[in-house]
Amino acid sequence: MLRVSGRVPEQAQVMTLTDEELAWVGDQIFRNECAGRHECLVHWNEGEAFPSLGIGHFIWYPEGESGRFTESFPALLDFMVDRGVQLPGWLEDARTQGAPWPNRAGFLSSSSTTDEVKALRVLLYETRGYQVRFIQERAARSLETVVNAAPEAQRPVIRERLWQLGQTPGGVYALMDYVNFKGEGLSETERYEGEGWGLLQVLQAMDKSPGLRPLDRFREAAGRVLTRRAELAEQAIERERWLPGWLRRLETYREPTDG
Prior knowledge:
- About 55% of the residues lie in helices and about 5% in strands.
- By secondary structure, it is mainly α.
- It is globular.
- The two termini are about 20 Å apart.
């Protein structure tokens, strides 16, 4: 079983998964981000200031650029290199500098023709196992940090909800995917009008869904949190195009046996 181990301890809780369970989670995330399509492993969404790469669509800002959203692709590359993955020379150089495309137009003009992009897609397909392990470890590290970021009076309830979600495969999948998808909810730059949309905010919003299973409460709370984000966003694309896709993604937060 997938689970978050340790219900009471203050130290970071640890997610433990079998290889089969981890592969299932990786396949789910790959479908969520890319619909399982190889070309989507290196992609630049309309309306975004960065490309998204890998099964988790990890963010990589262009060289010299930054933004409100947490960059994750360089950390993934570090993770893979530490485990013996050999990067092509251009990517080894770029991982400390930034994405080599200055903007979406520059990316689109080269993404279907350059050998570098084609090779990067192959690399990211062949290293899917490392990527899901990276997502797992990031989520596991974040849990106690998320608890401690809550107001003190809420911490026992937040910890209990994490423990409950950690008792089923679907619950741990939801935790892993949501942290990768929308973050922990701790960054002050990831706010619209002071309202965040990460894991902490979803756990807090579960108060409004009594009488349901923990995973169902999490899914409904996430829908409310992401709808609020879209409503507060300056860009209409968040409401018109992104929100429907986000809500479809949340519908995958179910147990494998719910079929």
